[in-house]
From TrEMBL:
It comes from Simplicispira hankyongi. Belongs to the homoserine dehydrogenase family. NADP(+) binds at residues 9-16. This is Homoserine dehydrogenase. The active site is at residue 205. GO terms for molecular function: homoserine dehydrogenase activity; NADP binding.
């Protein structure tokens, strides 16, 4: 059978990895796909660099639209990134009848509904395994492997940069700024790390996973997003003393009122496997009613791990290239006509309606009655206390200090309720600094 022909848009870190892995494992891949898969055309602004990667046997151009216009190209692989030109090129490729493989989580999280609708109307596939968790096949697991399950929740460490920073803060006692500099020096963080450290990258990814898990449209604009920039080394240390690790988690959960969709730092019990995922590694936990809890772990970024996911999508498309579009696995696992409307049965809940438990740290005056007043306010609000600890404030003088850290762990409470009681506590004259609030996820 004639090899399927692939046009590659972008020959950077991932694009070069795709070419190398596809070339190295061509025989094995052909045995699995049932036909050859060949990159025959590449578009990159740096033509000479791209040519040095792919050699003389591949046509290299600077204009991505020339790849899309080539009638011999069956699949377009978009590795440009971002929301702008990438969106236009993906939609043009679909309109030209090309299948699309992309690693662009930002594009799909924001414009996925439009792109998937266009692909369905044209009878082509948009595959995006590489968009979430790099080399971990979490999209295939959610979309196919767990299809018998009513998925109840998922939680993931899905940004390697932030996990590396948090590991450094815990292992070395560094503050956030120092750990970020380490991450940049070692190449784990970009010069502008905003999307990573503010949680935006993780939110793009959990938005896609949530849509597949629960059969809802992609709704990035509904996600609650909080990064790690405000985390202090002392909270990581206190969490450790209490038997927890702090991780930036992307979480989506099905509850009676709808779907939770959120990214924020979380205390996770140290005995959970996901709490022990260190460095730049990724992991996703998925809980289904039939299978129970499953864990997916591996490299979430990098040239060849991400290339592994891109090529897996190419193999899927090669297998299904001539299949009736109605017999293919739907883009978001559920048949398009059955997706729950954004305002219908399964709305994404505002953060104020989320129910979880909390770690609270209050810098307070070390005097009688302070603890009673604080716990009294929590009791009046109906927020139940799990544990209370008092620690000497190390950063404001040693023995004889008139300040202390009060650490409170709560049982489950509604976020809106906790917001209200925190405002009351912050107004107390004996509370001397902004209250630290970190959500706690037992993941059991």
């Amino acid at each position: 059978m004639k090899p399927i022909q692939v046009g590659l848009l972008g020959a950077g870190t991932v694009g070069s990895g795709v070419f190398k892995v596809l070339s190295r494992n061509q025989e094995e891949i052909q045995r699995r796909a049932g036909r050859g898969i060949q990159i025959t055309m590449v578009a990159d602004l740096d033509v000479e660099r791209a040519r040095s990667i792919v050699g003389d046997g591949v046509q290299v151009v600077s204009d991505a639209r020339a790849v899309i216009a080539n009638p011999d190209i069956d699949i377009v692989v978009e590795l440009i990134g971002g929301y702008g030109i990438a969106k236009a090129l993906v939609l043009e490729a679909i309109a030209a009848g090309k299948h699309v493989v992309t690693a662009n989580k930002a594009l799909l999280a924001v414009h996925g509904s439009e792109i998937f609708a266009a692909a369905s109307a044209k009878g082509v596939m948009v595959a995006f395994e590489a968009a979430v968790a790099g080399g971990i096949p979490i999209i295939k697991a959610l979309r196919e492997g767990l299809t018998a399950n009513r998925i109840q929740w998922l939680a993931g460490i899905i940004n390697g940069t932030t996990n590396f920073i948090l590991s450094e803060m815990r292992d070395k006692g560094l503050d956030f700024d120092a750990a970020l500099k380490d991450a940049q020096r070692l190449g784990y963080a970009e010069a502008d790390p905003t999307f990573d450290i503010e949680g935006v990258d993780a939110a793009h990814k959990v938005t896609l996973m949530s849509a597949i898990a629960f059969g809802i449209p992609v709704q990035f604009d509904k996600a609650y997003v909080e990064g790690i920039t405000q985390l202090a080394a002392q909270d990581i240390k206190y969490a450790e003393q209490l038997g927890y690790r702090i991780k930036l988690l992307g979480i989506s959960r099905r509850v009676d009122k709808g779907i939770e969709l959120r990214v924020h730092p979380s205390l996770v019990p140290a005995k959970r496997l996901i709490a022990n995922v260190e460095g730049a590694m990724n992991a996703v936990v998925v809980h289904g009613d039939a299978v129970g809890t499953t864990l997916y772990y591996g490299k979430g970024a990098g040239s060849e791990p991400t290339a592994s996911a891109v090529i897996a999508d190419l193999v899927d498309i090669a297998r299904l290239h001539t299949a009736d579009p109605h017999h293919r696995v739907p883009h978001l696992a559920f048949q398009p006509g059955t997706l729950q409307d954004a305002m219908g049965e399964l709305p994404v809940l505002p953060m104020s309606e989320v129910v979880t438990s909390y770690y609270l740290r209050l810098r307070v005056a070390d005097q009688a009655g302070v603890l009673a007043k604080v716990t009294g306010l929590l009791a009046e609000a109906g927020v139940s206390i799990d544990a209370v600890l008092q620690r000497e404030a190390e950063d404001v003088g040693g023995e004889g200090s008139t300040q202390t850290d009060l650490i409170i762990l709560t049982h489950n409470a509604r976020e809106g309720t906790v917001n209200g009681v925190l405002a009351q506590m912050q107004a107390l004259p004996t509370v001397l600094a902004p209250i630290v609030r970190i959500r706690k996820e037992e993941l059991n």
